[in-house]
Write a structure and sequence with these properties.
The chain is of the alpha/beta class. Helix content is 39%, strand content 22%. Helix 8 links the parallel strand 11 and strand 12. The structure holds zinc ion (ZN).
């Protein structure tokens, strides 16, 4: 399949170009490409940007969007989210994940990291929507041996079914956090990830309470505790990393571990701090961006996330320079690299994951396309989304979107009735 995009404004070069895509890669970028293509998109008045990687979310939580807002974190989680999640069926997860994939396509994301229940359902939904994902089966055992063993069995079964079966969907491990997974569970995840040569995905040091409890129970702060289990290495991604001290930043740099910044979720749930992103950056820690689930954000819009990431860091560091628009855009596309894909620069030879953004009044004038998108734009401005050379959305329309949304509405109505 080949694709020719005519006459778009390249966001980094700030000039009009044609882009020719073949076999999922950008084959040529030039001023007047004359090649025949299976599909042609006329990009006039549109701006070409790389697609985004949302490196921390819980996709099917789109169903819980707006269900429990304005509550303290533990009340939100223990009294609202967990009880409703316990009633969710495999079908609910399938519908919720489809809604999440639809939202991500509509706002320019073509790769996401998921941590949730029912991997079969998530795998099916992601395959149908034809985007890329790193799927982790959430592991929560609450220090119960039986639950831990059943987590292990489920994880092994899912890996048998899906590991290395798809080019677009990777299976990874998702032990939820140090306060929900036993030492045995964490050790299993470490060993199993090593055996399968895949990634570990965990929440880490989101709140001070988590740090204090971990100290009480293990004598170590969460990063040190995980490190003692061999958990931190260059195929580990940790969400939040808010309550970090300098030693922990250095440890992350030494282990080449990825820290995921989720500023909207952190602010909404009032976790009491800000990820020390700039200190991490200076220490050489790999930093990526993620929205977290739609129950704590409440959307999966990476454009909005970039703006808030930049503003929160500037405010908290009392520095209006860093991180720049280009830096947050880079962290919003960094997830592709760990999947062996080249996406963030829009160059010849890169994987064809890109978006076309409409010229809306907020994108006018366009003095600097990158800062314009980050500070003035939003995900709803995305007109076209291309993933691996496939056009998933054109003219802001995804085939079957009405059905996905109406299924989601029916599903949440039924779920609330089951309570
Ligand atoms: Zn999360």
């Amino acid at each position: 399949m080949s694709l020719l995009v005519k006459n778009v404004l390249h966001c980094f070069e700030n000039k009009l170009v044609d882009v020719f895509v073949e076999n999922g890669k950008i084959n040529e970028i030039g001023s007047e490409i004359k090649k025949e293509a299976d599909k042609v998109i006329y990009g006039k008045e549109k701006i070409l940007y790389p697609a985004f990687s949302n490196m921390h979310t819980h996709a099917a939580m789109t169903l819980l969007r707006g269900y429990a807002d304005d509550l303290p974190l533990m009340v939100w989680l223990q009294e609202k989210i967990w009880p409703l999640e316990s009633k969710m069926t495999e079908e609910d997860i399938y519908i919720g994940t489809k809604l999440a994939c639809l939202e991500m396509i509509k706002t320019g994301t073509t790769l996401f990291t998921d941590m949730y229940w029912y991997v079969d359902a998530a795998y099916q939904a992601v395959s149908e929507l034809n985007i890329r994902a790193m799927l982790s089966a959430v592991m929560i055992d609450m220090f119960d041996k039986k639950r831990q063993k059943s987590n292990e069995k489920r994880t092994i079964d899912w890996f048998d079914k899906y590991h290395n079966k798809s080019e677009k969907i990777k299976m990874i491990l998702g032990p939820h956090a140090v306060y929900t997974v036993s030492e045995e569970g964490l050790k299993f995840a470490v060993e199993f990830a090593k055996e399968k040569d895949t990634w570990l995905n965990i929440h880490l040091s989101e709140t001070l309470k988590e740090v204090e409890n971990c100290l009480k129970q293990t004598g170590k702060r969460p990063p040190e505790y995980l490190d003692s289990l061999g958990f931190l290495h260059d195929k580990t991604m940790c969400a939040h990393c808010v309550w970090f001290n300098l030693d922990e930043i250095k440890l992350f740099a030494k282990r080449n571990t990825v820290a995921i910044h989720s500023p909207v979720s952190n602010m909404k749930l009032a976790v009491g701090g800000v990820m020390p992103r700039e200190k991490m950056k200076r220490a050489g820690v790999r930093i990526m961006l993620g929205t977290d689930g739609a129950a704590s954000n409440n959307n999966l819009d990476m454009v909005e996330e970039m703006k808030i990431a930049s503003l929160l860091q500037k405010w908290s560091n009392n520095s209006s320079n860093e991180p720049s628009a280009a830096e947050v855009l880079s962290s919003a596309t960094a997830g592709f690299e760990i999947n062996g894909l080249k996406v963030g620069k829009l160059q010849v030879g890169d994987n064809a994951d890109f978006i076309l953004v409409n010229r809306h009044p907020v994108m006018t004038p366009l003095n600097n396309p990158v800062s314009n998108l980050v500070y003035a734009g939003n995900g709803a401005l995305v007109d076209t989304t291309v993933c691996a050379g496939n056009v998933l959305m054109e003219n802001s329309y995804v085939e079957g979107e009405e059905q996905i949304m109406s299924d989601a509405i029916k599903t949440i109505e039924k779920l609330l009735m089951r309570q």
